[in-house]
User: Fold this.
Amino acid sequence: MPRSINYRPSLIDELITNERLNSYASVFKHADDAELVGAYIWNMHVCASLYPLLTTAEVTLRNSIDTALTRSLGRFWWSQNRLHYKSFSQGRNEPFVVSAIKQNFSKAFNQVTRDKRDRYSIRNARPTHHEIIAKTEFSTWEFILDHEFMGPNLIWPAQLGSVFRGVWPTSRAANMLSSTKDLVKTIREFRNRVSHHEPVWKRFSVHTEQDAITHLHEKIDKIKQLVLLISPEKEQLVIRSGLLSSAERMCSISELRRFQHNIETVKIKSIAKLSKLSQKASDENAVKKIVLYKYGKTQFLLHPD
Assistant:
């Protein structure tokens, strides 16, 4: 049992560190070290549940932009000066977003060639369009939403409707571009925290457990908003595949308590009681812990689909 583990000095003081757990101790209720570490482990599971949503948002945005620009500018549209920008002037330094995009595509090209060399012993590989796109950093697709690419004979607003096929929050293309870039930046920065398994519930205004849960659900809503803006069909896939409900379920007080070993165990003595509890788990989108005694004591977790 988790409460029988010796958490100090080795586990907490040396391997997890008090510095890391201090932020948890100030926000999450805990009666002992087992519950404190439980909150820390809950955060790991939160990260794991959010990652598929974040990956979906990134890949959906990336492929939607690439599809539209490939149709308009051709394959390898980022090369040979085909991606024009507003402030271009002969002899003038490129703005940051333009040089950053070029650097990102250069890094993606080099990464593909390294992977082919290291994994398959292929030297002098010629990466394909899709191989390069797949290796680009998330920031590429934030930078390309910059107003540098907005104007006559530029990619925006001409391709905006092709990339974002959902209902726009505004009818003005310039406002749409700005708000979407801000949304992508928020999601990208959150993705970076999740990728490093940082305390993803943290921000300056989080002081209580409920604050932490509210913050996480705000981020989930942002991800859902971006996917819906790009493709209502993709949003339905996220919902019907259970990715959204899994993340929402994990980002809850009840799941926090489960990892703190404070979840109620329900004794099941009949199929009727099991059916009733199953319906409750589904209605609440919550995990239930059950125990059966027919063939000795056996414990299970009942997860809604």
